Amino acid sequence: MDAAVQRNKARTDLSRQLLARLFLIAMSAFYISPIYWMLVTALKGNNELAQFPPTLWPREIVWQNFEQAVRSFPFLSYLQNSVFYAALTVLGSVLSNFVIAYGFSRIKWPGRDLFFYPVIASIFIFIHFPVNPITMVPMFSFFTRLGLVNSYIPLIAPTFFGNPFFIFLLRQFMLQIPTELSDAARIDGANELQIMGRIILPLTRPALVVVALLAGISAWNDFLGPLIYLQNDKLYTLSLGLTFFKTAHKIEFNLLMAASCLVVLPVIGLFLLFQRFLLEGINLGDGR
Amino acid sequence: MEKRRKIISRDLRNLLFGLLFISPWIVSFFLFLVYPVISNFQLGMTQYSGFGEPQWTGFDNYRQLGRDPLFWTSLYNTFYYVILAVPLGVAVAIALALAMNQKVREVALYRTLLYLPSIAPVFALSMIFIWLLNPRYGLFNYLFHLLQIPAIDWLGDPHWSKLAMVLVAQFGAGQFGLIFLTALRAIPGTLYDAASLDGAGAFRKFWYITLPLLTPVILYDIVIGIGLGLQVFVPAYIMTGGGPVNSTMFTALYIYKNAFEYSQIGLAAAASGILFIINAVLAVTIFWSSKYWVNYRLA
Known about the structure:
- The complex is a heterodimer of chains A (288) and B (299).
- Chain A has 288 residues and is an all-alpha fold.
- Chain A folds into two domains: 2-64, no CATH class; 74-249, MetI-like (MetI-like fold).
- Chain A has 14 helices and no strands.
- In chain A, helix 4 (75-105) packs antiparallel against helix 10 (192-221), helix 5 (112-125) packs across helix 8 (164-175) and helix 9 crosses helix 10.
- The radius of gyration of chain A is 25 Å and the shape is flat.
- Mean pLDDT of chain A is 88; it is low at 284-288.
- In chain B, strands 1-2 form a two-stranded antiparallel sheet.
- The longest helix of chain B is centred in the first third of the chain and has 42 residues, at 2-43.
- At the A-B interface, helix 1, helix 4, helix 5, helix 6 and helix 10 of A face helix 1, helix 3, helix 4, helix 5 and helix 6 of B.
């Protein structure tokens, strides 16, 4: 009897697993379909591209599409600009948000929590920071008056002054480090900068990796910022260059998708490399 | 006395240090957030082309917006988008979290696949979707064709274009899917065991245990979703440019076009100010309503 019950349970478990798998595979297939279609389209020849019904896998793989795509627009110079923008954004975000979050978590001062409310409010309304449709018009006029339009300063300078979401993320993380660590160092005569640099910084590293990664990806993926501030085509990022390229020339979609691959794949690669940090880091941002 | 002075001086020192450390954020908050919000209303009262000095015109821009059918269309489109995309986004994110939480050996692989599109650049996804949704050569319509469903001209038909934008937005749900996953895992298993003993099935367990305990994250998802929805720009700019027949002319696109294509900075600022008020009022209302439906016990 017992064995029969167990066998029965094992069978329902198996069928449940099977059902779960089917559900997961269907969902994953749907979610990965845009990236799959990008890759497949990038590898198709011109003839196969205009075929109905479309082929799910290229009959003939045309690697030259990548070569042609890179040659048909100033890929390398756009790449350089995108890397420059992302690198400085990472630098600014890590530096500023670390120091600001330190002030919000590792030093006890009257009014600290009061000052934190605006940070929370900013997360909810100014979701794309710093360039978003709500603030872009006055900020553009502001930077125009300073003569800074058509440079990277309006895009990069704000990242050196903190980002509400990153402040929140790092503060949550730093609050979990026992205060006794700082107190002990203080008794030993260490000053605030020494405590910050020698004790808290190394302990915060995993969260800083997450901030660096998210900041870098957001700059790499940014479209609205470059669209508004960069008018000289020598300054274009990949996001802007690629889009304008599409409208300016009558370009075949396989080339456009090949170029898109070169923009999307580095992000995916970075994500896969740092996946564990990211998944854990987002858990920290949960705030409970 | 001596000791007391020492304590006071330590408090003062901490206050100064605290303010010093967060000072970049104070600058940022006023320069990049408070200033532009106020400036929207100031500039909104002027005629300004971006060159020369803004000319004071009072409420002219607001009157002009009120008379401009395109502005009303843009608000209609934006609300249409938000009303569909936000609840659907919450449902999809919860479904993703439930999927990511399945006890299947290779679940990490599925988790990666489901999360991946949400970090891909939206501009690139938008370009991919132009091709993916192509009525003749796209993958989706090919699948429809196999199922004998007539092809849909997603981006060329004003009845479908907004739905196409809503669809594209769902590919970013993995981000919130992960946050929901964390919340799912924080629910004590004993609750489910107790419910099983009482004879509750999977659906009732989800409805009476899982869902109430996810409400704090649902609140967060709704408020962020409303902000993202009201400010939606890139997919429309790239996939349709606001068309066909202005069916995807969202308010953010309306603001962009007026400010940067027609040099109507004053008018665009006035529209931005209105968008800000809508966003703030909705966010505050949702937070206020949360005391009636968000469950913080056990969370």
